[in-house]
Amino acid sequence: MTFWNAARRRLLSHALISAALACGVPAAQAADSSFPTRPVRLVVGYAAGGATDVLARLVAQKMGEALGQPIVVENRAGANSNVGAEVVAKATPDGYTLYVFTIANTINATLYDKLGYDPVRDFEPVGMIAKIPNVLVVNPKLPVKTVADYVRLAKESPDGVTFASSGSGSSIHLSGEMFRSRSGANMLHVPYKGSAPAVTDLLGGQVQSMFDNAPSALPHVKSGKLRAIAVTSAQRMPQLPDVPTVAESGLPGFDVQSWFSIAAPAGTPKPVIDKLNTALNKALNASEVRERMRDLAATPEPGTPEQLRTFAASEIKRWHDVVKQSGARVN
Q: 302: how many CB neighbours lie within 10 A of its CB?
């Protein structure tokens, strides 16, 4: 956009607001109707290249097209996404700063003794992006092919079975903790600083199993370097149609998926939230977005802010119980 076009657009915006004021319409309401008039920032609480970042950039591009302004992704990694969350929680609630709110934030509500933000009160839900299942994978040298085999080995072995994770309190870790609680298996958690080093040791046989995110696990399963035992979602994955779910393998009701959504600072006007939600759902229904998500083993989840609010609240309660039972804590 040239300087003159930008200037003309600003003048037009001011004229619309002035006209609205003359008609007795509040300036804030007029500003809401013209939103957005400049680029929007979307904060990701993790480094570039991970599933959260990839999904954020995928929907940001299409949302920006729908809104008529670019959405710029900004990575603010640290403290299991808490650094980025705190930045957005304290931002001006005008719709120009958004956050990729994930399962980690609902886990962190219990995992951390103290947070610099409240995952419920400090955010206004915009909408869900997608869900990604985890896959229980084992080193092929482990003599198990089913969940029943895995549980039997874990109970009969004096030392149990080791399971790696990307870090204490991650969805990968707590998938394992929920499995251990439900199955009664003897399992030893081995935390790593990220998924990549955990998978490296799993491939090398230093650890025996892992409830890895599907996009990370799939290439190794397809190459035969890892064996998939079960998926943690309620339904089977199209990419692994022959691999059963944990639920159908003897633990009914087991359903764990990593999920990703967009939220704004609390107090963001409803008309702005509604515009953002409409743009997000439009992006999620775009054929190229759905195709790319299929490659990532992700299921797009268009919906309403209210649906996300209810879901996030239920996740906070669910993971509160799992975290307490596991004894995991981060100070």
A: 16
Which of residues 249, 284, 302 is at a domain's end? 249
Provide the CA 84 distance to its chain's centre, in angstroms: 13
Residue 29 lies in a domain: no
What token pair was written down for 278?
Answer: 């409409």
The helix/strand/coil state of 68 is coil
Summarised one tens digit per residue, pLDDT across range 4-38 is: 343 344 444 444 444 444 554 454 455 577 999 99
Q: Is 208 in contact with 161 (CB distance < 8 Å)? A: yes
Residue 190 CA from chain centroid, whole number = 22
Boundary residue ending a domain (222, 249, 276)? 249
Retrieve residue 298's tokens. 């992700």
Q: For residue 18, tell me if it sits in a domain.
A: no
Closest C-alpha to 173, from 212, 218, 131, 217: 212
**Per-residue pLDDT tens for 165-182?**
988 888 899 999 999 999
- Provide the number of structural domains found in the chain: 2
Burial 66-103 (b: 16+ CB within 10 A, else e): bbebbbebebbbebbbbebbbbbbebebbbbbbbbbbb
Whether residue 36 is preceded by a cis peptide bond, meaning omega within 30 degrees of 0, is yes
Residue type, 159: D
Contact 70, 279 (CB under 8 A): no
Beta-carbon contacts of residue 49 (< 8 Å; ≥ 6 apart): none
How many whole angstroms separate alpha carbon 26 and alpha carbon 8? 23
